[in-house]
Amino acid sequence: MRAKRSFLNLFTGIGSQIITISLGIFIPRLLLVNFGSEVNGLVVSISQIIVYFSLLEAGVGAASLQALYKPAADGDKNSINEILAATSSYYKKTGIFYFFAVILLSAIYPMVIHSNINKATVMLVILFTGLGGAFNYYFQGKYKILLMSEGKNYIITSISTIINILSNLAKIVLLLLGFNMIAVQASFFILTLVQILIFIMYINRNYNWINLSATPNFKAISHKNSALIHQISSLVFSNTDVLILTLFSNLRIVSVYVLYNMVFTMVETIASTVNGSITFLLGQSYQNNKSKFMRLFNTYEVYYMAFVFSLFTITYILILPFMKLYTSGIDDINYIDKWLPVLFISIKLLINARSACNNIINIAGHFKQTQIRSISETIINIVLSIVFVNLLGIYGVLLGTLVAVIYRTIDIIIYTNKYILGRNPWVTVRRWLTNVGCFIVLINISNGININPTSYKTFIIFAVILTVILLPIYFIFISIFERESFRYTKSFFYKRLIKNNVQSLKH
What pLDDT does residue 2 have? Predict the structure, then answer.
């Protein structure tokens, strides 16, 4: 059952991302064509600031998820209700602050930003962008955590995908018809409310045993403050670059950063979907069967890291051809820069390939033990980015981020292996070196190939060809060096797919 849920999470997640990317990629282009780089930079900077409001959820979400793994695995409804009651209490209190934070931002932001855009427009765009998140947080945050602990990410993904499709289609139609940004963001807000209603209906129908009036088990989520520090550090870290560029440069530079980051974030989201599809399985195995957990984790780390490297190898090869195609006809600022992909790929590879080890810190509940390390990464990022941005502009913020990521990645690898897994960090380092070596070879080979798509159709063909070639290369290459993980994977798929299918045919 748990393996089946992992596959459902994986396939629905990847399917969702393909659909969302296919639709969502048109919107920034339409914004640029219809309103220019300034409006595109404004919309993204607002979205980035509103992301900080999710700090109100930070800590309790991670702590609740970690606490729910065991009762979810055991089917202990009473314990689940007690943890959810404590979680719900926190969400209700902080949900009010979320709402007023959006109102306050809509009043202050138009007064401090340097822009030619009408202040009333900016205010309404903020309200429609932020209030949807506030209602989402208040009404369904706790239920999402429960579904994640049970490995039912595919339910969350399915509902979100339907709404994303409708939301993106509405935005595209409104932009093509010439409506302003207020109408575009209003459509997003309305569909967010629809999503909340669908989600609540699903919970009421399938989880009628949930009792939020149960005695709250606040002790179960007592790690929330330490987890909060991790979440604050993570969110500040993830959104520092856009905020610093907004303050120290201009919205056109923000737009350049955002377009590159958009592409890498889409790829990053696919990687995160694969990562999230198996996290609950690791969490439940860690609580109930440590030997099984170690075999599962080793295989997961080996092939997830190879998957991440293959995705970002493809992205690095195609990023500049895509940007030339995507920004053709837009001349208010130059979007083609050979150094930006180098900096972005370095940062994204480090962040995503370390996710396997980082997940174990969360699953084991080592929030307090590692909070200083997380804070240090954020401080390094902010300080160096502010120093470098005045010297090197957009390169400066990326360099500041890169230094911080290098420090934290090394730290995560050492801490997870030494203090949680009880093994030599060289096991993980060896896997990194294997993938990095493969990456360097493939990039050097690709430099001798002329990739210059003249349409989105030819671009997609190039992307498919590269995926079909590079993904197996990474998996075969890593399997040669990680034979034990390869044997475990072969055995796993044989038992779950081939053997079960043969038995079902006999019956």
Answer: 57
